[in-house]
Amino acid sequence: MRVLRSLKVFDGAVGREIQLCEGDLTNVDGRFFATDILALSAFDGNYDETPSSLIGQLAVRGVSIRGLARDPDAYLKSRHCWFSKPIVNAPTGFPFKRVVGVETPRGGTPLAATSDMFTALSPFLMRNPSMSSVSLPILGTGDQGASLPVMLKALIKEAHICLAGGLGLKLFRIVAFGDASSREAISTFDELVRSDTDLQESSSRVPEFDVFVSYARNDLDQVSPIFERLKSTSLNVFIDTHTLKTGDVWIDGIHKAIAKSKVFLALISDNFNHSKYCQQESDHANRLFGTGNPALFPVRIEKVTPEDPFHRRESKLLDQLGIDGLCAELGRACPSP
Fold it and tell me: What residues pair up with 102 in beta bridges, in sequence order?
């Protein structure tokens, strides 16, 4: 194993790191390259031990990923991810404490499955604070045949969000296998870092907004009184219809605004539950802040059951809070510097 490239990410004064390495994940020198978690990908429920796959090569070494998948510690069905029980009696060259399996569902893509992995990692890391490092191959590029540049860029960007968000993850190691893949990975890494200003900055989130408001567009009439009341306070509020400039790339602008906000306010309704855009915003906030963080502020504007498990457990009902009560709670959650 050798380090090809490294990107420092700072959460305040704490330095974290994304590494691009070349090596063999079936035979790792634990003195220098041990990590807490090994993540790998597979087709949905398919752990065939093919000779060309990491799963097959691990089986040769005596590590049965199929066996770990059959009896996991946790399985997040909605995210197509499972987390193994602690690894015991691991062979030499396998210095990992847990395995995370990332499954590409039927009709899905490795790229979407990778995004699901980062969403699933957030609550797992919060429940297991001793877990702070991850190693993984460039997911989806083996038997699944995904593009190496596409997958590597996605992994680096998502890892940057995770590390900058301060979720406890300190090291994210991406491992290319073989000379050809390593050369392509180096070229892709360098191109991304040169072109992406967020990666160039590699700094902690500096709040620009007090509150990011996530809502379903079909609820605009219903939530407008909340918007008007929020605007009358001293809070600096991001509401995309009012704040994004014409011509901004919509999803990129949304993600940056969430990252630059102190609080993520989700106004939950039946329309919200069925909006893919609202779910994407919630997923991004969960990855960035960490599920259970008080910066996540779900409020039901209708008597519905939220889709998000955290929202189901922690959401408050607007009828009970009142709009003034909601503004008061948001004010307490966003103290002035």
Answer: 41, 81
| Alpha-carbon 203 to chain mean position | 18
Rounded to whole angstroms, what are the CA distances from 114 to 25, 85, 104, 146, 284?
19, 21, 9, 12, 13
How far is the C-alpha of 331 from the C-alpha of 62, rounded, in Å?
55
**Is 39 in a helix, a strand, or coil?**
strand
Question: What single letter denotes the amino acid at residue 188?
Answer: T
Beta-bridge partners for 133: 171
pLDDT in tens, 181-190: 999 999 999 9
How many helices (H) and strands (E) would you count in the chain? 15, 13
3-state secondary structure of 211: strand
pLDDT tens digits, one per residue of 186-210 = 999 999 988 887 676 554 455 688 8
Q: Kindly report the pTM of this predicted structure.
A: 0.65
- Please give the angle made by the CA atoms of 155, 159 and 163, to the nearest 5 degrees: 175
Model confidence pLDDT, tens digit, residues 125-180: 778 888 889 999 998 888 778 899 999 999 998 888 878 766 678 899 999 999 99
**Contact criterion met (CB below 8 Å) for 122 and 284:** no
Q: Residue 235 above 80 pLDDT?
A: yes
CA 264-266-259 angle, to 5 degrees, is: 25
Q: What Å distances lie between residue 236 and 242, 261, 316, 336, CA to CA?
A: 12, 9, 22, 11
